Amino acid sequence: MKRRHTFLLSMLCFGFAFFYIPILSMIVYSFNASRLASVWGGFSTKWYVSLFSNKQVIDALILSLQIAFVSACIATILGTMAGIALARFTKFRGRLLFSGLVTAPLIMPEVITGISSLMFFILMAQWVGWPGQRGFTTVTLAHITFSMVFVTTIVQARMLQSDRSIEEAAMDLGSRPWQVLRDVTLPVIFPAIMSGWLLAFTISLDDVVITSFTTGPGSTTLPLLIWSKVKLGVTPDINALATLMVGTVAIGVLIAGIVMHRAERRRQHDEQMAFRANG
Amino acid sequence: MGGKRLSGWFDRRGWSDVLIAAPYIWLLLFFLLPFLIVVGMSVATKTSTAPPFSFGGDYPLINLQGYVRAVSDTLYFRSFITSLVSAGIATVFCLLIGYPMALALTRVSKSWRNILLMLVILPFWTSFLLRVYAWMGLMGKSSWFNVGITKIWNALVPAGWAVDFMPMMHSNFAVVLVMVYTYLPFMILPLYASLERLDPTLDEAALDLGSRPWQVFLDVTLPQSIPGIVAGGMLVFIPAAGELVIPTLVGDAASPMIGRVISDQFSSARDWPMASSIAVVLLVLMVVPAMIYGHFQAKAEGSK
Q1: Topology of B71-303 in CATH?
Q2: Are the CB atoms for A71 and A205 separated by under 8 Å?
Q3: ipTM of the complex model
Q4: Which of A108, A198, B38, B192 is 20 to 30 A from A178, alpha carbon to alpha carbon?
């Protein structure tokens, strides 16, 4: 038993070294004064300065955040609707096709989603004259479509775990179906909806392949800008950009972790108090 | 009056109709229709018009040339093989590294476990592109990592095998390495979820009855974690097989993966029918593992 633990723990250390050494190396080299990736030319923050004075980068970041925000909100609404529908309505016409449509985007290779969306937009423009040009709208539409199914998966799983008897009780007490939905179901699945939104936002913010197919001239998102630079090789300003992104995410995850930990502690505390009061 | 009728309809069944219809119509329009366009395009004929395809008229209504080429042309055939083999090797390595990590996560104390799980998920929240890029920095021939590996190699092998640097970039090795790196969290998380549910008293019982730890693992732990292995395997294999970003950045242009072939056929060669034919063949190949996954999922649900 002892020996097995040693093996497992050393694998764990190896795994985390594997995860984090490349990222740490990238962070260290973002402070490298030398332009060459291999030579350490002393400490410098000049790549950060050049990054912040680069209008292209700032514009791309703003566009990416806009697309991610709009697409995450719409994807969350549509995805939640689909998740509730699939979890609560076991029989309706076309349910099999519907559940297939919700699963298929998850396993569709991105490059195929990309070319199918692009051909769709080009042919639609030819047949009905819409969309006139590709850019913000087409990218957002494509992002909504492939991120809403992730929201559906999360919401559906939460719905299947949740206790239906509360909904039935509300129904018995005379609530209308949509009132039950608003007052009982939605609050119960709210954490799932939030994590769905966060996932949709991240997926949109991170996407390269589908964006590269559905975007048009003048609409360059941050991943597309990085993509076009990275294809040419390693540059120090991308190291700086990467460091900032990793730092932002790490702080976000840390805050989320602390908030969740506190909420959990409070819940446990409340439960104990309730238990004592009843006992 | 009209408002009352409307709210009455909404109360009875309208709200459920709206709930179903809105996402349904969205997916029909923006997912199924584009997909049907790909299927239709796969039997069209390439032309030099804009858009570059045609049905009927001077051309055959159904042109299966794309499919014939997709399965018979050695270039495409080799790309399919390269993709499936690379994705397969990456999946095996993810399992070999991810399984002990997931098992170790179930053995550490509760407070450590949450922190370590967060560290597994953290790279997943950072940009995929930048995680690939991080390895480009490491694998380049003059990076500290490459120099270090080269020194170790030269110290270990006979003098005749000494190299100036490790040719890591732009190879299938690099593609598999980066795939393992980027997809490892997808393997660890479902494995952890299935291992965490296991009852530790079963292990203890087997040990008490005289099994060696290794036998306990093989006879007790491993069989019960098969749903987790299948889930993790699919989550790695399916996206890896259709990968476009990794092969473009660190792969060997001489033996491209199928995702890159589809993209090149579509964008550079402007051969929409050919790109669509390859896409459909790839999807058919993807459906087989997805169905195995669905089968295991259904079985796991049934046994609960």
Answers
A1: MetI-like fold (1.10.3720)
A2: no
A3: 0.90
A4: A198
